[in-house]
Design a protein that fits this description.
The protein has 247 residues and is of the alpha/beta class. The protein is built from nine helices and eight strands. Helix 2 crosses helix 8, helix 6 packs across helix 7 (147-157) and helix 8 crosses helix 9. The N and C termini lie far apart (60 Å). The chain binds adenosine-5'-diphosphate (ADP), 4-methyl-5-hydroxyethylthiazole phosphate and magnesium ion.
C-alpha cells in the first residue's frame, strides 16, 4: 500500500474539485476543511443542477443528514454521473437507523455502489440491518461491533467501507486496516465526520480507493491531534461562572 504521505502529496498536486451534497450543519465546516487540506469544495444540492454540476467535479460526496426527497434525487442523479465517468463518490449514511426515509434513501444510494461508504459504528451497523445503540446522528456502538457489518457491506457494494471512531476501521471486504490517529475531542465537534467524507473523496481522485481512504483517515486523525494541542476543550461546567447578570 502507498505511504499516506504520498497519497496526500498526489491529492495536493491535483487539488481536486469536490462536489458535496451535504447537510446544513456541515456545509461551512466541510468547505473550510477541504480548502485547508488542499482541495476545492463546492456545495451544490439543487435537484435542477446537481447532475450537471457533477460533470465538472473530480469527486462527489453525498450525505443524508438533512436531506429531503429533492435532495435525495439530486444525490442519486449526481452519483450516477460519477459512476458513468468512473469518478469516486463517498456516501455518509447520517442517522440512517432513525427513520424509514433515511433507510429507503440509503438503500437506493447503496444500490448505486458508492466508491466509499463512511459512517460511525452505529450507522454502519444500521446500514447492514443490525440493531444498534445510536443516539440520532451520534454513535452508541464500538467500532469493533461494526467491523463485520462493514465487511459485509463492502462485499455487497464492491466498494470500501470505513467505520470512524476512536480507532477507525476500513475494509474492501478482503483486506482491513485500523487507523489509531485522532483525539477524543473530535466527536465533540459537530460535522467533523461529515467533513472527513470530503477529504476521503479528494484522496480517492486518481488513487486506489482502499489506500486513499486509509491515508485520508490517518491524515485527518493527525490533523485532529494537532488541533487538539491548542484547543481548550469545553468548559468543565455547562453553567458559565462569569455571565454578566451574575456579577
Ligand atoms: N474517541 C475518539 N478518539 C479519537 N478520534 C476520534 C474519536 N471519536 C472519533 N474520532 C475521529 O473523529 C472523526 C469523526 O469521526 P466520528 O466522530 O466517528 O464521525 P461522526 O461525526 O460521523 O459520528 C474521525 O476522524 C475519527 O477518527
Ligand atoms: C447534528 C446533525 N444533525 C443532522 S446532520 C448533523 C451533523 C452531523 O455531523 P457529524 O456526523 O459529522 O457529527
Ligand atoms: Mg456522522
Amino acid at each position: 500500500m502507498d505511504e499516506p504521505g504520498s497519497c496526500l502529496a498526489r491529492m495536493r498536486e491535483t487539488a481536486p474539485l469536490v462536489h458535496n451534497i451535504t447537510n446544513f450543519v456541515a456545509m461551512a465546516v466541510m468547505a473550510n476543511v477541504l480548502i485547508a487540506a488542499g482541495a476545492s469544495p463546492a456545495m451544490v444540492h439543487a435537484r435542477e443542477e446537481a447532475a450537471e454540476f457533477a460533470t465538472l467535479a473530480h469527486a462527489l460526496t453525498v450525505n443524508i443528514g438533512t436531506a429531503d426527497p429533492d435532495w435525495g434525487t439530486a444525490m442519486e442523479e449526481a452519483a450516477a454521473v460519477m459512476n458513468g465517468a468512473g469518478r469516486p463518490w463517498v456516501f455518509d449514511p447520517v442517522g440512517v437507523g432513525a427513520t424509514r426515509f433515511r433507510q429507503a434513501l440509503s438503500e437506493r444510494l447503496i444500490a448505486l455502489r458508492p466508491t466509499v461508504i463512511r459512517g460511525n459504528a452505529s450507522e454502519i451497523r444500521a446500514l447492514a440491518g443490525l440493531e444498534g445503540a445510536a443516539r440520532g446522528v451520534d454513535a452508541g456502538d464500538s467500532v469493533e461491533a461494526a467491523a463485520e457489518a462493514a465487511r459485509l457491506l463492502a462485499c455487497r457494494t464492491g466498494g470500501i467501507v470505513a467505520v470512524s471512531g476512536p480507532v477507525d476501521y476500513v475494509t474492501d471486504g478482503k483486506e482491513a486496516y485500523r487507523v489509531a490517529n485522532g483525539h477524543p475531542l473530535m466527536p465533540r465537534v459537530t460535522a467533523l465526520g461529515c467533513a472527513l467524507n470530503g477529504v476521503i473523496a479528494a484522496f480517492c481522485v486518481g488513487q486506489p480507493a482502499l489506500a486513499a481512504t486509509t491515508a485520508a483517515l490517518a491524515f485527518y486523525g493527525l490533523a485532529g491531534e494537532t488541533a487538539a494541542r491548542s484547543a481548550r476543550g469545553r468548559a468543565a461546567s455547562s453553567r458559565p461562572s462569569s455571565m454578566p447578570w451574575q456579577r
